Amino acid sequence: MELTKYEQDMYDGEYGEGKAECMEILTSLGKIYNAEKMIPITSAQVSGVSYKTIGDAGLDFVVDLGKKADVELETMLNPAGVDIENWQELGFSEEFTKKQIDIINGYESCGVMSTCTCTPYLIGNTPLINEHVAWSESSAVCYVNSVIGARTNREGGPSALLAAIVGRTPYYGNHILENRRANMIFDVDYDFKNEIDYGALGYFVGQIVNDKKPYFRLNDRVSRNNLKLLGAALASSGAVSLYHVENVTPEADYARCDESFDELEVVNIDESDIKETIQKLTTTDKLPDLVCLGCPHASISEIQEVAKLLRGRKLKGDLWICTSKAIKAISEQCGYLDIIEKAGGKIVSDTCMVVAPVEELDYEVIGVNSAKAANYVPNMANLDVVYDTVENLIDMISQ
Amino acid sequence: MSDISCRQISKGIAEGEAIVTHDPISFLGGVDPKTGIVIDKKHELYNQCITDKILIIPSGKGSTVGSYVIYQMAKNNTAPRAIICQVAEPIIAIGAIISKIPMVDNPDVDIINTISDNDNVIVDANNATITVN
């Protein structure tokens, strides 16, 4: 692998032990993937934050690294295992919370921003098209590649952090333009009605394509909120890091500009595929005792929608809307938080139902409008799931 | 005694007894970092201890958190002395480097069927060679 003089100097330890170690790891990764060089990056997003997933091992690593290295660029964290501000009210244990705070403090001492979200692109960590970045949360990787057109591989938690410390990542995979072309076509003959249709499409297609780059032809345009749900589902049932939607996503024209595009396999999808997937994602006949929205973290417009539905209502079941601290603050300023809390709901920040230890909280059935959450919650938290629209879920827990 | 050439993934030199498996290994959920014992019931090495061994595996698999598990093993003194992979992947590679465990991959022989359990093996990652006594 060819290194620039600055990269070689970092590798040789002239910029300290921390950077040298990061360069050793990243050049080894480059070797594994046959990268010919490193490429400078402009943004990073680091997964492996929840104490539930990384445990004491990850905590040790982050604290040790924090003593010897700093990130060089805008770096945000993935959701943590608890809402740091309201953990007590939500019922999380003090022991878990303490470990969680230690992990976040460790990242902070590396210069990482202590805001924990899977949607950094909604709160200002928003690269431009063609920028190289190192992101690791799978749904964020899918969004930043597909909807924004920036370039990242599916980094592991450590490799994204190390890339942020030396400001570069090995040049392979999605960083190389030619690798961003579509390699499987999906003709979808269905008039989408709501958000769970898009999640179901993503879940269904993810199982077929694994890590290929699907190209969708849909009857209608898609909103950014629904692209977020579609990508998250593609990245959880499969390992999709980049997809294209004709006339919608920025690289769709490039994706089909090669002659070989016309020879790609075409899969036809109709109403029955979508409906069957929706049914399959619900695991019980019971009603939810907790409705959890915001997987990936809710945007301000999604929260506005929920507030509209809740105005003047009283909930009998629990409602969490998971989002970043920043979006929660905007919700408060716009008055949505007040409406949601008066109805008995909560806006939960910095965490989510996938990474929090929800199995400790005495719920049996979780209602979600995210196919990604429906995919993970039964395994990770051993709970039943109802997969339905926001409107229906709120009806289910209303008096 | 024979020398096998390979590729350096993580620097360093180590000598020890081999433990060999045909199954890829996931460190997260697959190995107990407190004891170094393989706890994945479906794994060929189930119930065996990899501490202080030269671990010879086809590849790694599973969650990227596996890198941190290797790091914790090194801190607990339960880690293998060196790792030889037929084909390295990022989880074990990162784990080995942050834990300063010598690691090589891509040996020029079918390593899993060349080396047997308890063979004495020297891994010299710096010179990209494996020596079997």
Automatic annotation (TrEMBL), chain A:
| Phosphomevalonate dehydratase large subunit-like domain: residues covered | 1-394
Instruction: Write down the PANTHER family for this protein, in alphabetical order.
Output: DUF521 DOMAIN PROTEIN (AFU_ORTHOLOGUE AFUA_6G00490)
Under the heading InterPro entries, the entry gives: PMDh-L-like_dom
Protein known as: Phosphomevalonate dehydratase large subunit
* Protein species of origin: Methanosphaera cuniculi
Query: Its biological function?
Result: Component of a hydro-lyase that catalyzes the dehydration of mevalonate 5-phosphate (MVA5P) to form trans-anhydromevalonate 5-phosphate (tAHMP). Involved in the archaeal mevalonate (MVA) pathway, which provides fundamental precursors for isoprenoid biosynthesis, such as isopentenyl diphosphate (IPP) and dimethylallyl diphosphate (DMAPP).
The protein's GO terms of the molecular function aspect are: lyase activity
Q: Which keywords has UniProt assigned to this entry? A: Iron, Isoprene biosynthesis, Lyase
From TrEMBL, chain B:
Q: Which UniProt keywords apply?
A: Isoprene biosynthesis, Lyase
Q: Name one GO biological process term.
A: isopentenyl diphosphate biosynthetic process, mevalonate pathway
Main EC class of this protein?
lyase
Its source organism is Methanosphaera cuniculi
Note the InterPro entries from the entry.
PMDh-S-like, PMDh-S-like_dom, PMDh_S
* Family listed: Belongs to the AcnX type II small subunit family.
Output this protein's name: Phosphomevalonate dehydratase small subunit
One Gene Ontology molecular-function label: hydro-lyase activity
Q: What Gene3D superfamilies would the database entry show? A: Phosphohistidine domain (3.50.30.10)
Catalytic activity annotation: (R)-5-phosphomevalonate = (2E)-3-methyl-5-phosphooxypent-2-enoate + H2O
Instruction: Name the residues annotated as catalytic in the UniProt entry.
Output: S63 (proton acceptor)
Q: Which residues form the Phosphomevalonate dehydratase small subunit-like domain?
A: 25-104
